[in-house]
């Protein structure tokens, strides 16, 4: 498995990483824990060394599952988690203040059953700008000095927020949504990270399953599924348009004897500036398929076709 250096860090991350949101179970149809475990090992056994999670995924459950499964190989993998979305009976709120960071780090270390986190990421910027970015990044820098985290990352930040963060301490990566159906980062964030030697970690690389080609007009997606709850691509109009585009993706995939998922991941991996693609999976079969997204190349002509169809 090809590895790529994550920005200015010493982390050489596998080009396909593992996204562990669904390992939190909630909102993902409560996947079977033994199958999740097999999925994680399928990834690890085939060279995946970068695992991404967050406290809010299943309210601690994703971190617990990942920490437990990867415990025997902890020093062989990079654990990336996040902070800043806190929850109680009333819902989920953003809190990226210093005191909250010092509280959350201890909880993540405990759930992941580890003494350090390789990449600690601000999950979302403060939507109301209550906490100055310098306070958040300053607190993270103190965690680096204390040996609790190795590197600082951000997620869902704009270029201006990223530049403010960098002014306080080194930030090694930006994690943002990027896939054939969601290409907004191509306008500003990706060119900026690429030009500045910052790693880029695309999330939802399969558009939460849409790019696998398995969804149809008649697919029944439960109302409590995160896709129905949070993803604008699953709103009726966008969904219908996405399905039409996926038909084009299938045509290209067929030409190579690959699946739509593999073709979508290959397109992404070839984009300049991409470091590690955190592909989410619930089963070992999904992991196996997704790992086949790299190790081959789409012709330039087909990349251009995809760029146009999905433009
Ligand atoms: N920073 C952030 O704000 C943020 C936001 C979102 C995600 N993330 C991170 O990015 C990771 C990946 O994103 P994501 O999980 O949202 O979306 P994704 O990777 O695009 O899609 C993952 C889901 O698609 C389905 N799937 C995956 N491979 C498949 C295959 N080969 N065939 C059929 N179905 C397949 C599975 O769900 P089903 O089987 O249920 O269809 C799987 O859980 C997350 O796990 C998380 O670590 C971060």
Task: Report the end-to-end length measured between terminal Cα atoms.
Answer: 30 Å
Query: Which strand-content bin applies to the residues?
Result: 15-25%
CATH topology descriptor:
TIM Barrel
Number of helices: 11
Oligomer: single chain
Query: Unreliable segments (pLDDT under 50, ≥5 consecutive)?
Result: none
Question: In sequence order, what are the helices and strands, one letter per element?
Answer: EEEHEHEEEHEHEHEHEHHHEHH
Helix content: 25-40%
- Describe the largest sheet: 8 strands, parallel
Query: Which CATH architecture would you pick?
Result: Alpha-Beta Barrel
The gross shape turns out to be globular
What is the alpha-carbon Rg in Å?
Answer: 19 Å
